[in-house]
Amino acid sequence: MSRNKVHAPLAQRRKRTALLFLLPAMVIFAVYVIYPILSSFCLSFYNWDGVTDKSWVGFANYNELFHNPVFFTALKNNVLWLVLLMLAPPIGLAFALYLNQSVWGMRLVKSLFFSPFVLSGVVIGLIFSWFYDPAFGLLKLIVGHGIPVLGDEHYATFGIIFAALWPQVPFCMILYLTGLTGMNPEIIEAGRMEGAKGWTLLWHVVLPQLKSATFMSITLTVIGALRSFDLIAVMSGGGPYDSSTVLAYFMYDQSIKYFRFGYSAAIAVVLFLIMSVFITYQLRRLLRSES
Amino acid sequence: MKKVVRYSALCAALAFSALAHAGEITVNIAFKGAGSRAVWESIISDFEKANPDVKVKPAFIEEETYKVQLPAWLTTVSPDIVKWHEGERMAYYAERGLLEDISAEWPKNGWDKQFASLKQASSYKGKQYAVPTDYFAWGMYYRKDLFQKAGITSEPKTWEEFLAACKKLKAAGIAPIAVGGRDSWTLAAWFDYLDFRINGYDNHMKLMNGEMAYTDPKVKKVYAAWKTLIDNKYFIDNPTSYTLDSVQPLFNQGQAAMTLMGTFLSPVIPPQVKAQTGFFQFPVINAAVPVAEDGSAECLNIPAKAKNKPDAKRFLAFIGKPEISARIASALGTLPANNQSQMPEDPIARKGFQILSGTTGGIAQFYDRDMTKEMADEGMKGMQRFVTDPSKLDEILAQLEQTRQRVYKK
Amino acid sequence: MYPLPIEKWKPANRWFYKASLPLALLVWLLPLLAVMMTSVRSNDDLMQGNYWGWPTKIAAFENYRAVLVESPMLHYFWNSCLITFPSVVGAIMLSAMAGFALATYPFKGNTAILATFVGGNFVPVQILMIPVRDLTLRMGLFNTVEGLILFHVAFQTGFCTLFLRNFIKELPYELVEAARVEGATEWQLFYKIIIPLITPALAALAILVFTFIWNDYFWALCLTQGDDAAPLTVGVSALKGQWTTAWNLVSAGSLLAALPSVLMFFAMQRHFIAGLTFGATKG
């Protein structure tokens, strides 16, 4: 976006206006998000059970965390979640391409495809638990013998991520559908004229135009992966024996079940630091694409 | 809409204003399902009828949510009555000075006698902090028809008879024991009972109190007995894949013959299955060890920060009555805490009552109610690992021992 | 248009496509159908492990009655409305203003503020739990609808600001300059020029945020107790049974709880799709 240079007093005035526009959002955001984050940072250096007084312990919480094997299991699972849930954007794109036609009743079809997204995690978790049930599950009927997906430390996380894809895919699908609708038809036609077909057309002509949809899908999928909380709680409770836990769940466990608020704040801080790598990367990409 | 928002804000403000009206008590009740909510609602309205000068403001909170929120209530804005668990769970808060000492109420209301067997569990350092409402017994549910089919003629009383029964069931193509190990506490019941029967109550409580090492040979003996059952495949396949909910179809369909569970399960067994269901006491392993049992009790407490303690005590006095205890128990499928109450009709509940009242070796609360929560959870995760791969036992116990030293050092 | 509209396809392919649609829908919605079936199953069926077969007895009336009449579901529903609508309006309003400021005014610290909003948005919510609880308690808003609204507004503002800032940034800047030349104040510029232009985006965002807040369970759990201010999600989880879970009731309750979001999406689909289409104008 090009801008003319504005005179200084005008610039001053606009700056003030900008501030006024920003103020309400900034205030409420500072109170409810920024302050709590900082406060958690501080808390992570204390030992606190929420009942008795806090006591300063320095880096003891972090020290314990880095010596706890559960932390590394959780970390590994977090990575698995991030990587595997990334299947949602491409699958969502495939769905969007499939559904981007004007056939009678398409509006209803699209809505129905979208509906898993609005179901509560608790019910999704339940249905997939039944799907995996080694004695009575649909999976057993399909493959012929029971597979203890949720009872086995090697499969549990994969089983839950598979369930998590079900609501995440339609979300990405919708984003891509909107991208497809808003695409410039002339460019596609021009591509077709030049003989681009199939994959080439999709890869070189269509996808570049869907860049912002892709950005949104990936961003929201990452957020989804990090908030992968309900499903784990319902489907495995982090088990068997912590094998399917993730940092967010591990942290919740420590604070809610054992009232180790300082320790859980330390977990949160680590999770936040990991996230900030991603945040920085995304932001830089966003800003670079604009300049 | 604005009006409603304002109105509800006003209500909330009133509820939380530091000065509650005299003659009003707030009661927080944990509930699961419409049935348990309904019985508390009717009891509260009866209390208000009997005490017209006191207004009760109940808040019903779903059980899981309740557990999460309780510490916050006790430390900040307390209701006048909370519902909680007896034993270590209660002692945790009593120790931190968050519960009101109601020792004086016990002799006054005749509770010393009526709740004699639960007095210990209601006490912390010799003082009483709770009034028990109801409790449940544990035992082995079994399918009479399957026992018959396998040629088992009587309920196993000893470990040998039990193992023989398992063998016969296995030979008849029936999984002897169902367990929903994804809910790890269902495994803990097995540990509790094997430990009661092998090492006895006192040793069990030592372990619960963090005074015994997990690497102690006594603990290993419990797991060795457990391992025999696993090695002979007497448990269902993939036990850690099932929850308490999802394992029941196996029992109901006759694919598994026994399950170790509390009397609370009885009301939900489908009628046609129930006709074929029996309930027996966990068999004796070492005849020299006095028989101990799990008998988990629920209770009501007054938070130390409650605003209207006199009326809260009146409420407790009302709840402590034999007929109220009986009403709670029959609605929840549990046993009335008051020993003057009429016993419930349910045959399994009655059997459970007999088991507990004949117990000479001591009554524990339950694995995860007798220990600090963190140690209990680690222990139960260890059990999940153990049933998945019993060969890892030494490694698991060594790790638990490390955890014990950390948890009990604090 | 991409992919090629089916009118231009070979008839056989066109037929094949149309036939595949219901099939794909069936497979895709199998889990949802299972939820529906569960909601009309009797407890006995579930106890027998009949999760996927045809119910032996249709207990639709009993189950939905239990949910709607025997539990205070309508009260929870009302609470959900009281929480969700003001939160959506509040979050969108605040973030439209903030997004406008960040997109139109180049000033020092612009990027830093944007980064803060984005960063806050990626925070694992659990990190906020303890401080937000304390804060709400201290403000006397614990267990009130307002306490939840304030938090939701604040938390959703991060995401919405990023979204709307990007959207406004895509608008041709000439519009802004033209309006200024005609003497519009900055405020007029905002609500007379920008707001009408981003209405579709606001609608789309509203639906999205609506779903987020409507389905929130975690914060309802942290910031309420009892029935006073508890929303539908809390109500649904309260439908579980005493010891074993009444999954048929939970399913019925969840379907009812999801209904508003599905209906809203269906009704507003056109706006939703149009509204999310940013990046389109920048060909």
From TrEMBL, chain A:
User: Where does the ABC transmembrane type-1 domain lie?
Assistant: 74-282
Q: How does it sit in the membrane?
A: Multi-pass membrane protein
> Where is this protein localized, as stated in its record?
Cell membrane
Question: Where would you say this protein principally sits, based on its record?
Answer: membrane
Q: Where are the transmembrane segments?
A: 21-46, 79-99, 111-132, 155-180, 201-226, 261-281
Gene3D superfamilies referenced in this protein's UniProt entry, alphabetically: MetI-like
Question: Cross-referenced Pfam families, in alphabetical order?
Answer: BPD_transp_1
Q: Which family does it belong to?
A: Belongs to the binding-protein-dependent transport system permease family.
Which PANTHER family does the protein's record reference? BLL4140 PROTEIN
Q: What is this protein called?
A: ABC transporter permease
The record lists the organism as Silvimonas amylolytica
Automatic annotation (TrEMBL), chain B:
Q: Which residues form the signal peptide?
A: 1-22
The record's listing under InterPro entries reads: Bact_solute-bd_prot1, SBP
Q: Name one Pfam family in it.
A: SBP_bac_1
Q: Where in the cell is it found?
A: Periplasm
Q: What is its main location?
A: periplasm
| Keywords in alphabetical order | Signal
What are the transmembrane regions? none
Q: Which family is this protein grouped under?
A: Belongs to the bacterial solute-binding protein 1 family.
Family matches, as PANTHER family: ARABINOSE-BINDING PROTEIN-RELATED, BLR3389 PROTEIN
Q: Provide the protein name.
A: ABC transporter substrate-binding protein
Automatic annotation (TrEMBL), chain C:
Q: Where is the ABC transmembrane type-1 domain?
A: 77-268
Q: Where in the cell is it found?
A: Cell inner membrane; Cell membrane
Which family, according to the similarity comment? Answer: Belongs to the binding-protein-dependent transport system permease family.
The signal peptide annotation in the UniProt record is: none
Task: Kindly state which keywords UniProt assigns to this record, in alphabetical order.
Answer: Cell inner membrane, Cell membrane, Membrane, Transmembrane, Transmembrane helix, Transport
Question: What is the purpose of this protein?
Answer: Part of the ABC transporter complex UgpBAEC involved in sn-glycerol-3-phosphate (G3P) import. Probably responsible for the translocation of the substrate across the membrane.
Where is the chain membrane-spanning? Answer: 76-105, 112-129, 149-168, 189-214, 246-267
Name of the protein described by the UniProt record: sn-glycerol-3-phosphate transport system permease protein UgpE
- Sorted alphabetically, which PANTHER family does this protein's record hold? ABC TRANSPORTER PERMEASE PROTEIN MG189-RELATED-RELATED (PTHR43744), SN-GLYCEROL-3-PHOSPHATE TRANSPORT SYSTEM PERMEASE PROTEIN UGPE (PTHR43744:SF8)
Record InterPro entries = MetI-like, MetI-like_sf
Its membrane topology: Multi-pass membrane protein
Q: Which Pfam families match?
A: BPD_transp_1
Q: How does it assemble?
A: The complex is composed of two ATP-binding proteins (UgpC), two transmembrane proteins (UgpA and UgpE) and a solute-binding protein (UgpB).
